[in-house]
Design goal:
The chain is built from 13 helices and no strands. It is an all-alpha fold. The chain has a single domain (13-296), classed as Farnesyl Diphosphate Synthase. It is globular and about 50 Å long.
C-alpha cells in the first residue's frame, strides 16, 4: 500500500475517533455491558446487538454534537483542534457520518429479539436529550449538567432491556441512578478546569455563581454522593455478587469519600484539585463497572 494512501486512511481513522469522542463513548459501552450482564447473567448474541446499537448511537450523537458546537469549539483552546474547527472534515461530511451512525445504532437496537421497541425508545430519547435538550440548556445555564446527566443514566438501562430485564427493576434503577449521580461531578469538574475558556466561548460558568470555597464544598458533596451510590451495590446485590468484588467496591467507595476531603482545603479554588478529582472519580466509576460486570457472570 502506498505511503500516502496509508497516511490518508490513518488520518481519516483519527478524525473518526475524535468525531465520535471515543473515550466518552467507550464508557457508554461499558455501562451498557454492565446493565446487560446484570439482567441476563451470561454473554449471548443479543449482547452484541445491544452493545453495538448503544455504542453507535452514542458515537453518532457525539459526532452530531461536533457539528452543533463547531463555532464554540473554535473559540476554546481545549477544542480548537477538533476535526471541524481544524478543517480536517467539513460540517456536511461530519453531519453525514453522524446520521449514518445513528441510523445503524437504531437498526441494531431494532434487531433485538426481546423488547426492541423499549430499547429503541430509550436510545432515541438519549439522542434527543443530548443533541437537543442539553445542547440548548448548556447555552442558557451553568447548571445544565444536572438534567444533562440523564444521558449517562440511559445506556445501562438499554443494556438491561437488551438482557430482557424490566426497566423498572430496582437494581436497574440503582444502576441508572449511579451513572446519573456520577456524571454530574464528572462534567462539573471538567467545566471547572476550563472555566476561563467557557467564558471566552460565551458559555455560562459555575464560577460565575459560586466562590472557590463554595465550589469546593459542593463538589465534595457530589463526590460523596457518588461514593454512597456505589457503596449501595454490594448491599443490594448480596450473594449475587461474590464477596471479593463487594470488598473491592466498598473499599473504592471509602477511598473516594476520603479523597473528596481534599476539595475542602484552602487550595480548592485552584485548578489542580479539580483535575485530580476528575481523574479520581472516573477511575472510581471504572472500578465499579468492572466489579459489577465480572461479578455478574
Amino acid at each position: 500500500m502506498p505511503k500516502q494512501h496509508r497516511n490518508s486512511i490513518l488520518g481519516w481513522g483519527s478524525v473518526l475517533l475524535e468525531l465520535t469522542k471515543i473515550r466518552i463513548t467507550a464508557v457508554v459501552m461499558v455501562s451498557t455491558v454492565t446493565g446487560y450482564l446484570w439482567a441476563a447473567h451470561r454473554v449471548t448474541e443479543q449482547m452484541v446487538f445491544t452493545i453495538l446499537g448503544t455504542l453507535l448511537l452514542a458515537c453518532g450523537s457525539a459526532a452530531m454534537n461536533h457539528v452543533q458546537d463547531a463555532s464554540i469549539d473554535s473559540r476554546m483552546n481545549r477544542t480548537a483542534h477538533r476535526p471541524i474547527p481544524s478543517g480536517r472534515i467539513s460540517k456536511a461530511n461530519a453531519f453525514f457520518v453522524a446520521g449514518l451512525l445513528i441510523l445503524f445504532g437504531l437498526y441494531f437496537l431494532a434487531s433485538l429479539e426481546d423488547q426492541p421497541i423499549v430499547a429503541l425508545g430509550l436510545g432515541g430519547a438519549a439522542v434527543v436529550w443530548y443533541n437537543i435538550v442539553y445542547y440548548y440548556l448548556k447555552r442558557w445555564t451553568a447548571f445544565a449538567v444536572v438534567p444533562g446527566s440523564l444521558i449517562g443514566a440511559l445506556p445501562p438501562v438499554i443494556g438491561w432491556v437488551g438482557g430482557n430485564g424490566h426497566p423498572l427493576h430496582p437494581f436497574c434503577l440503582l444502576l441508572a441512578s449511579f451513572f446519573f449521580i456520577w456524571q454530574i461531578p464528572h462534567f462539573w469538574l471538567l467545566q471547572l478546569n476550563r472555566a476561563e475558556e467557557y467564558r471566552r466561548a460565551g458559555l455560562p460558568a459555575l464560577s460565575d455563581h459560586f466562590s472557590g470555597a463554595q465550589l469546593g464544598r459542593i463538589t465534595t458533596a457530589w463526590l460523596w454522593g457518588t461514593a454512597v451510590a456505589g457503596a449501595v451495590f454490594p448491599a443490594l446485590a448480596g450473594e449475587l455478587l461474590p464477596l471479593g468484588w463487594r470488598v473491592v467496591m466498598l473499599s473504592a467507595s471509602l477511598w473516594l469519600g476520603l479523597a473528596a476531603l481534599k476539595m475542602l482545603r484552602r487550595n480548592a479554588p485552584e485548578k489542580r484539585p479539580y483535575r485530580r478529582a476528575f481523574t479520581e472519580i472516573n477511575g472510581y466509576a471504572l472500578v465499579i463497572m468492572v466489579c459489577l460486570s465480572i461479578g455478574a457472570i
